[in-house]
Structures are given as C-alpha cells and as structure tokens.
Amino acid sequence: MESLLYISAIIVAIAFAVLVGYLVLTLKSANRTLDHVANTMAGLEKQVNGITHETELLLNKTNRLADDVQQKTESLNTVFASVKELGDSVQQVNRSIRHVSGVVSNQAVKQSEQIAQAVQWGNVAIDFYTKFKARKARQEQTSTLHKEEI
After folding, report:
1. Helix 2-110 / helix 112-149 crossing angle, nearest 10 deg
2. What value does the mean pLDDT of the chain take?
3. pLDDT in tens, 76-116
4. Which contacts (CB < 8 Å, 24+ apart) does range 98-101 have?
5. What CA–CA distance (Å, rounded) separates 47 from 51?
6. How many beta carbons lie within 10 A of that of residue 24, not counting itself?
7. How distant is the alpha carbon of residue 127 from its chain centre?
8. CA–CA separation, 18 vs 11, rounded Å?
9. C-alpha–C-alpha distance, residues 83 and 70, integer Å
10. Keyword annotations for this protein (predicted)?
C-alpha cells in the first residue's frame, strides 16, 4: 500500500509538472500578448499626440479665420449702413421731385388758361413782327426801285 502511495505521489508530481509546464507556456503567451498590446498602445499614443497637435493647429487656424470673418462682417455692416442711408436719401429726393412735379402740374392746370392766352399773344406778336418786317422789306424795295428810276 505504501507503493501505491508512492505511485500516486509520482503521478501527482508528474501531473503537477505538466500543469506547471502548460502554465508556463500560457504565461509566456500572455506575456507576448501584453508586450504586443503595450507596443500597440505606444504607437497609438504617438498617433494621438500627432492628431492632437494637428487638431490644435487646425483650431488655431479656425480661430484666426473666425476673427477675420468677424472683422470683415463688421466692416460690411458700415457699408450696408451707408447704402441704407444712401437709399433713404434717394427716396427723400424722389419724394421731393414727386411733390414738386405735383405742384407744377397743379399750377399748370390752374394757369392753363393764362398760358393759352400768353401763347396766343406770343403768336400775335410773332405775326405782327413778321408783317412788319415784310412791309419794311417792301418799302425798301420800292424806294430802291424809285432811286434807280431817277
């Protein structure tokens, strides 16, 4: 029975040795996997640092661009204000012209009879002047003919 005890102790020792062997292989494999993960994480950290730097540069450029757009928008606001003032001025001039033309039109309607009389008197004066010139020209012709006959 003692021999059975020795044999079972040897079997337990062999089983323990095999178990330890497989445990060592598993731990070595786990060690290689952890080394690979550590290398991957180091590479990932470098990439994240690079991305962070690029993002920082992009953010700075975006901020500068936003400032530039803000300044240009503010300068455009003054231009639009000037254009609005110009439009208001033009509108005021248009109102004044409409008012003046309305007043002139009303006065023309009110004084159309007087204007018609003035035009008639002007025509009479032109006719009178034309007849006067024609009479004077005839008198000069007649006097020139009399002088030639003498």
Report:
1. 50
2. 88
3. 888 888 888 988 998 998 898 898 888 888 877 777 778 77
4. none
5. 6
6. 10
7. 68
8. 10
9. 20
10. Membrane, Transmembrane, Transmembrane helix
Which pair of structure tokens corresponds to residue 133?
């010139």
Residue with structure tokens 């003046």?
A: 100
| CA–CA dist 49, 42 (Å, integer) | 11
Type of residue at 77: N
pLDDT at 105: 80
The pLDDT of residue 149 is 61
DSSP H or E stretch at residue 39: helix 2-110
On the 0-12 / 13-18 / 19+ scale of CB atoms within 10 A, 71 is exposed
What confidence category does residue 73 fall into, taking pLDDT thresholds of 50, 70 and 90? confident
CB neighbour class for 130 (10 Å; exposed up to 12, middle 13-18, buried from 19)? exposed
Two tokens at 122? 């002007």
Residue in the structure block whose two tokens are 């089983």? 15
Find the distance separating the first CA and the last CA of the chain, reported in whole Å: 197
Amino acid at 111: Q
Query: How many residues does this entry show for the chain?
Result: 150
